[in-house]
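wait is this the right file?? whatever heres the structure
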């Protein structure tokens, strides 16, 4: 099945919970990063974060139980207190100032305040059987995908499946590119973050937050590729879809006169190759394992849900207190674009 058909299958019709597909409202947007820069308020660059409201400056995996410390989640599934985050896209105006690009909900999730759509899958997205066995993450598990310092296509190839889609309409799912779209995208820019699917089975984290997970040794997750002996445990594939609502910035007259595209990540990257995402596991008890073991598609009856209005109510206080929304003379944190 093609991506477009899939989009029609559950993007454009009333989505129930697919293979595990669910919307999450914005929990907060601030310059914090408890995975890479724990204890730093502020962290170097701005992030947009979804999930449980235990999100904080420090979330040490030994002492910070996301489930116990959260009282709500911005996600549709109420047993998911995980946190997921990415950098933030800014538009750079001709006069050199920066404006934060808003995020928009996908069709069928109208009225969601920004946020992302999250997937967990046992097999390729197009495989409606979802029969393969996956082992759910353990409490304290966390990981990072992507590299904030990358600026070239060759570097970006280290990570499969961190891509952009220039949305012509709500159903556009191809082509996917490794760098920012070069033309205005009428329905926005979708950023896709797919995490690795093999785990070493031992470490909840690693010094670079990446080495305890890996891609299949041969083939891909989609082709049923086997995990390497060093990382033998097959974990669910997490996919995050973020739709950056570029509508206000699509007038070519606002774009740079040299023909380049005007969007930059809050980490100072105008290529798009530094795209990255962070994950802190925080599902209650064995709710995620049970849901994955049910091998359902488009319906996950074992999981409890809440309304979008309830999701939108779950936020965390602004702990950094800086202006992120004016026409800024510099990116938050004074990050240089290079
Ligand atoms: C964040 O951590 C601080 C220090 O431990 C604590 O006082 C505060 O209540 C926490 N904030 C939230 C929203 O949990
Ligand atoms: C810079 O350009 C933006 C977009 O055109 C505009 O809204 C803003 O007011 C301008 N700022 C200054 C200081 O001229």
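ok assuming it is, sequence goes like this
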């Amino acid at each position: 099945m093609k991506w477009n058909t899939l989009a029609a299958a559950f993007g454009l019709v009333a989505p129930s919970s697919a293979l595990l597909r669910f919307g999450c409202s914005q929990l907060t947007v601030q310059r914090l990063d408890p995975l890479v820069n724990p204890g730093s308020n502020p962290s170097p660059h701005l992030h947009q974060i979804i999930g449980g409201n235990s999100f904080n400056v420090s979330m040490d995996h030994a002492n910070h139980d996301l489930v116990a410390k959260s009282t709500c989640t911005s996600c549709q599934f109420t047993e998911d207190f995980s946190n997921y985050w990415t950098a933030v896209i800014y538009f750079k105006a001709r006069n050199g100032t920066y404006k934060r690009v808003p995020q928009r909900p996908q069709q069928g999730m109208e009225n969601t305040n920004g946020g992302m759509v999250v997937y967990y899958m046992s097999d390729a997205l197009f495989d409606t059987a979802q029969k393969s066995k996956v082992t759910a993450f353990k409490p304290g598990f966390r990981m990072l995908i992507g590299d904030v310092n990358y600026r070239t296509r060759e570097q970006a190839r280290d990570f499969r499946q961190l891509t952009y889609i220039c949305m012509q309409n709500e159903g556009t799912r191809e082509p996917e590119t490794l760098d920012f779209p070069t033309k205005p995208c009428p329905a926005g820019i979708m950023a896709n973050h797919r995490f690795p699917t093999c785990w070493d089975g031992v470490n909840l984290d690693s010094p670079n937050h990446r080495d305890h997970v890996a891609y299949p040794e041969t083939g891909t997750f989609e082709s049923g590729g086997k995990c390497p002996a060093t990382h033998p445990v097959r974990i669910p594939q997490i996919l995050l879809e973020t739709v950056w609502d570029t509508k206000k910035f699509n007038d070519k007259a606002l774009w740079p006169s040299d023909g380049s595209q005007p969007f930059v990540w809050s980490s100072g990257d105008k290529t798009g190759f530094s795209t990255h995402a962070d994950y802190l596991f925080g599902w209650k008890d064995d709710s995620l394992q049970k849901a994955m073991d049910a091998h359902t598609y488009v319906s996950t009856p074992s999981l409890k849900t809440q309304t979008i209005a309830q999701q939108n109510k779950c936020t965390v206080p602004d702990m950094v207190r800086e202006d992120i929304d004016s026409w800024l003379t510099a990116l938050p944190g004074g990050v240089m674009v290079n």
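Helices lie at 3-11, 66-69, 153-156, 287-293, 308-313. so i think its the right one actually
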